[in-house]
Amino acid sequence: MDKKKIAKASGGLHGTIDIPGDKSISHRSVMFSALGDTPVHITNFLHAQDCLSTAACMKSLGAEVRFLNEGELMVTGHGLHGLQEPAGIIDAGNSGTTLRLMMGILAPQPFLTTFTGDASLHHRPMGRVIEPLTRMGACIYGRQQNQKLPITVVPSAEKLHGITYQSPVASAQVKSALLLAGMYADGNTTVIEPFRSRDHTEQMLEAFGAEVEREGNSVTIHPVRTFRTPESIHVPGDISSAAYWLVAGSIVPGSSLLLNHVGVNPTRTGILDVLKAMGAKLEIRNRRISGGEEAADIRVESSFLHGVSFGAEIMPRLIDEIPIIAVAALFADGDTVITGAGELRVKETDRLQAIVDQFNQLAPGAAEGVEDCLIIHGGRPLQQAEVFSYDDHRMAMSLAVLGMAGEGAVLRRPECVNISYPQFYETLAGLC
Ligand code: S3P
């Protein structure tokens, strides 16, 4: 399927949606379980391409990864020092999380690993992880002066050294890679970020018995001797996937949706804060702890939205949601000004440019982008048009919601939703 017709919604959206498992937590659940030595039963795992890349990767390093069902698996490792040299090249597919976190796990190992990935991953900057890992004593080589895939991790002559690293970017992938390498180092490893990024690695490593200290934007890990694997991990729903319905329910008049089992870890809930500031009607119900993470059900009803401004400080808490927040901004009254969004340029595609180019097809003159800044002029007339996903899952889903809430659209290369939300179109059709 090369093109998908997105029909204009004919009335309000109604229904209850079970939000699929969190992508970030699913990756970590398999990786960390594979470093333990007792079986871990993982449920509500995100059965989508990115997380399946991680599962395949851990398998090729010798862990037993057995699917019982879609979304349910048993992972058994051979201990922190039990990974084995893979027989071939490891393919991280489209997944930056797989590649960056795995570099942290593999840098201290006594064997060689070579990584590849898809065309998008070949363009993404890996120096941000390779450079600090090299400071710890790791030997990692990549194309374009150790910046890009293909990448080879070579065993280093000595044990890695603990370092204190002041990261120039607020990135959970950078932070996680260093903390994972730090588990094997000869001393403590500290990562200090400009703003705090998502903390799933810290949370889960603590649950596995690692000694982790956190203070403000700084995290320190102590060298780890053994992992205490839990018997089970239940993955909460992904707020980044719920985001499409939070916005669709807000902007399509007459809608009322209930989103079940959404992860509401405070390092991820920037979209709730921004939508509330825009005037969205959200009700967070039934707050609970699920698999060591905060979760809740969210009711969303359509409402009148107005434009807002936000910047770098909140960015790590909603970085993946900017394309869909920009859709909300299109349907709002007035301008929305988003600054400090430079990281969007190094995601699966240059999302800042992609938003400008594709939104302007459906709402001429509505989107402007300069450097790290995105401006959306709300309330511009909408039209039907053909738009392009750039093979970026979050662009595809945001454009589909835009088309559905607007005048309809034809989406080129729609299949990339399989990266994080394979049931997306089915759920969309069920609501209309
Ligand atoms: C992720 C971190 C974020 C996010 C990505 C998932 C993670 O990337 O955009 O989708 O699971 O750690 P950065 O760390 O590059 O900001």
Automatic annotation (TrEMBL):
<dbReference type="InterPro" id="IPR013792">
    <property type="entry name" value="RNA3'P_cycl/enolpyr_Trfase_a/b"/>
</dbReference>
<dbReference type="InterPro" id="IPR023193">
    <property type="entry name" value="EPSP_synthase_CS"/>
</dbReference>
<dbReference type="InterPro" id="IPR036968">
    <property type="entry name" value="Enolpyruvate_Tfrase_sf"/>
</dbReference>
<feature type="binding site">
    <location>
        <position position="351"/>
    </location>
    <ligand>
        <name>phosphoenolpyruvate</name>
    </ligand>
</feature>
<feature type="binding site">
    <location>
        <position position="28"/>
    </location>
    <ligand>
        <name>3-phosphoshikimate</name>
    </ligand>
</feature>
<keyword id="KW-0028">Amino-acid biosynthesis</keyword>
<feature type="binding site">
    <location>
        <position position="23"/>
    </location>
    <ligand>
        <name>3-phosphoshikimate</name>
    </ligand>
</feature>
<feature type="binding site">
    <location>
        <position position="173"/>
    </location>
    <ligand>
        <name>phosphoenolpyruvate</name>
    </ligand>
</feature>
<feature type="binding site">
    <location>
        <position position="171"/>
    </location>
    <ligand>
        <name>3-phosphoshikimate</name>
    </ligand>
</feature>
<keyword id="KW-0057">Aromatic amino acid biosynthesis</keyword>
<feature type="binding site">
    <location>
        <position position="320"/>
    </location>
    <ligand>
        <name>3-phosphoshikimate</name>
    </ligand>
</feature>
<dbReference type="GO" id="GO:0008652">
    <property type="term" value="P:amino acid biosynthetic process"/>
</dbReference>
<protein>
    <recommendedName>
        <fullName>3-phosphoshikimate 1-carboxyvinyltransferase</fullName>
        <ecNumber>2.5.1.19</ecNumber>
    </recommendedName>
</protein>
<dbReference type="GO" id="GO:0005737">
    <property type="term" value="C:cytoplasm"/>
</dbReference>
<dbReference type="GO" id="GO:0003866">
    <property type="term" value="F:3-phosphoshikimate 1-carboxyvinyltransferase activity"/>
</dbReference>
<feature type="binding site">
    <location>
        <position position="347"/>
    </location>
    <ligand>
        <name>3-phosphoshikimate</name>
    </ligand>
</feature>
<feature type="binding site">
    <location>
        <position position="96"/>
    </location>
    <ligand>
        <name>phosphoenolpyruvate</name>
    </ligand>
</feature>
<comment type="pathway">
    <text>Metabolic intermediate biosynthesis; chorismate biosynthesis; chorismate from D-erythrose 4-phosphate and phosphoenolpyruvate: step 6/7.</text>
</comment>
<feature type="binding site">
    <location>
        <position position="124"/>
    </location>
    <ligand>
        <name>phosphoenolpyruvate</name>
    </ligand>
</feature>
<dbReference type="Pfam" id="PF00275">
    <property type="entry name" value="EPSP_synthase"/>
</dbReference>
<keyword id="KW-0808">Transferase</keyword>
<feature type="active site" description="Proton acceptor">
    <location>
        <position position="320"/>
    </location>
</feature>
<dbReference type="InterPro" id="IPR006264">
    <property type="entry name" value="EPSP_synthase"/>
</dbReference>
<feature type="binding site">
    <location>
        <position position="24"/>
    </location>
    <ligand>
        <name>3-phosphoshikimate</name>
    </ligand>
</feature>
<dbReference type="GO" id="GO:0009423">
    <property type="term" value="P:chorismate biosynthetic process"/>
</dbReference>
<dbReference type="InterPro" id="IPR001986">
    <property type="entry name" value="Enolpyruvate_Tfrase_dom"/>
</dbReference>
<feature type="binding site">
    <location>
        <position position="173"/>
    </location>
    <ligand>
        <name>3-phosphoshikimate</name>
    </ligand>
</feature>
<keyword id="KW-0963">Cytoplasm</keyword>
<feature type="domain" description="Enolpyruvate transferase">
    <location>
        <begin position="10"/>
        <end position="428"/>
    </location>
</feature>
<feature type="binding site">
    <location>
        <position position="394"/>
    </location>
    <ligand>
        <name>phosphoenolpyruvate</name>
    </ligand>
</feature>
<comment type="function">
    <text>Catalyzes the transfer of the enolpyruvyl moiety of phosphoenolpyruvate (PEP) to the 5-hydroxyl of shikimate-3-phosphate (S3P) to produce enolpyruvyl shikimate-3-phosphate and inorganic phosphate.</text>
</comment>
<dbReference type="GO" id="GO:0009073">
    <property type="term" value="P:aromatic amino acid family biosynthetic process"/>
</dbReference>
<comment type="similarity">
    <text>Belongs to the EPSP synthase family.</text>
</comment>
<comment type="subunit">
    <text>Monomer.</text>
</comment>
<feature type="binding site">
    <location>
        <position position="23"/>
    </location>
    <ligand>
        <name>phosphoenolpyruvate</name>
    </ligand>
</feature>
